[in-house]
């Protein structure tokens, strides 16, 4: 049995689907029946409840040969870091009490740093908690920016005619498709072929700048002149709050992008066949174009 947290999220859903297709027994964790019903229909066991409930989460992990974990993102949380810690502590307690032997945990590049990386500091803290587990083999997957993060820019592109963020326009950074993260996680959950604590970076097919990414997206949606605009940090934080995100999350977000711009958040393992993933940004752009047209 493999338990998957976040089974309705960007990575968890793809992981559960891949495991089911491979013939694995899957327990999919979700908050409501309606959101996880498709997995029940595909043959998964479903655990419905709140991950803040230690008794629920322990039961959901109990009997599993391996578990996929992550810290859910709630940009509206009034104290985002405190919420990360609460969730992280509950997850680790549930793993310890259920004696799960293998854990694949979604983390991030930059999780080696204790401070100055915004929400990634919460992932650093979670890595430290998981490292202290006795009798549990832990694999940390460390991607950086998801291709799918560009979906957040759809309204800006559609109605303002630009793409924008606080990331330096011509800074080449590794970006990765969530499907490739899911494939790496699903393969590890099935293989369970490591011991102790392992870190694996996921660097996408290559580095790409926000300027180049915007050009590719613009071409796919019929806006070849689409421009990327770098916003000031304070302006971006205010815009996020206006978009109903908490001030806590907004400030952490711009702290993270500042750390990216200052190249504090970066790979340490070098590019290898193992951390280079296959999905190109151009492939994602086709999906992005369909979402744009559907608006």
Describe it:
This protein is α/β, with parallel strands linked by helices and 295 residues long. It has helices at 12-21, 33-41, 54-61, 80-98, 120-131, 154-160, 178-191, 210-220, 233-242, 247-261, 281-294; strands spanning 2-4, 26-30, 45-48, 66-69, 102-106, 137-142, 145-146, 162-165, 173-176, 197-201, 207-208, 227-230. A 7-stranded parallel beta sheet has the order 3-2-1-4-5-6-10, with helices on both faces. Strands 7-9-11 form a 3-stranded mixed beta sheet. The protein has a two-stranded parallel sheet with strand order 8-12. The longest helix has 19 residues, at 80-98.
Topology:
Blueprint (H helix, E strand, L loop, with lengths): L1 E3 L7 H10 L4 E5 L2 H9 L3 E4 L5 H8 L4 E4 L10 H19 L3 E5 L13 H12 L5 E6 L2 E2 L7 H7 L1 E4 L7 E4 L1 H14 L5 E5 L5 E2 L1 H11 L6 E4 L2 H10 L4 H15 L19 H14 L1
Parallel strand pairs: 1-2, 1-4, 2-3, 4-5, 5-6, 6-10, 7-9, 8-12
Antiparallel strand pairs: 9-11
Helix pairs in contact: 1-7, 3-4, 4-5, 8-11, 9-10
Overall pLDDT score: 96
CATH class category of the domain at 2-146 and 175-201: Alpha Beta
Largest sheet: 7 strands, parallel
Could you say which structural class the secondary elements and strand pairing correspond to? alpha/beta
What are the segments in which pLDDT stays under 50 over at least 5 consecutive residues?
Answer: none
Q: Radius of gyration in whole Å, from Cα?
A: 19 Å
What's the name of the CATH homologous superfamily of the domain at 2-146 and 175-201?
NAD(P)-binding Rossmann-like Domain
Query: The CATH topology of the domain at 2-146 and 175-201 is what?
Result: Rossmann fold
Choose one word for the global shape: globular
| SS summary, helix count | 11
Number of strands: 12
């Amino acid at each position: 049995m493999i338990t998957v947290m976040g089974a309705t999220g960007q990575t968890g859903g793809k992981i559960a689907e891949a495991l089911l297709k491979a013939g694995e027994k899957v327990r999919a964790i979700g908050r409501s029946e309606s959101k996880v019903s498709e997995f029940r229909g595909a043959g998964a066991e479903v655990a419905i409840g709140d991950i803040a409930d230690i008794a629920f989460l322990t039961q959901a992990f109990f009997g599993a040969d391996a578990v996929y974990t992550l810290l859910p993102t709630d940009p509206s949380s009034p104290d985002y870091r405190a919420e990360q810690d609460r969730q992280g502590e509950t997850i680790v307690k549930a793993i310890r009490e259920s004696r799960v032997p293998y854990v694949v945990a979604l983390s991030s590049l930059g999780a080696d740093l204790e401070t100055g990386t915004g929400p990634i500091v919460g992932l650093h803290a979670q890595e430290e908690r998981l490292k202290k587990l006795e009798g549990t083999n832990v694999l940390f997957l460390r991607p950086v920016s998801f291709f799918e993060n560009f979906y957040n820019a759809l309204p800006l592109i559609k109605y303002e005619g630009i793409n924008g963020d606080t990331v330096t326009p011509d800074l080449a950074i590794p970006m990765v498709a969530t499907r490739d993260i899911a494939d790496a996680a699903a393969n590890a959950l099935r293989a369970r072929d490591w011991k102790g604590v392992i870190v694996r970076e996921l660097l996408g097919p290559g580095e790409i700048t926000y300027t180049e990414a915007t050009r590719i997206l613009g071409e796919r949606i019929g806006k070849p002149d689409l421009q990327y605009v770098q916003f000031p940090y304070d302006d971006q934080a205010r815009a996020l709050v206006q978009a109903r995100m908490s001030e806590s999350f907004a400030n952490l977000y711009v702290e993270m992008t500042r750390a990216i711009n200052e190249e504090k958040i970066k790979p340490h393992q070098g590019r290898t066949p193992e951390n280079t993933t296959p999905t190109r940004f151009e492939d994602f752009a086709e999906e992005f174009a369909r979402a744009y047209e559907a608006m």
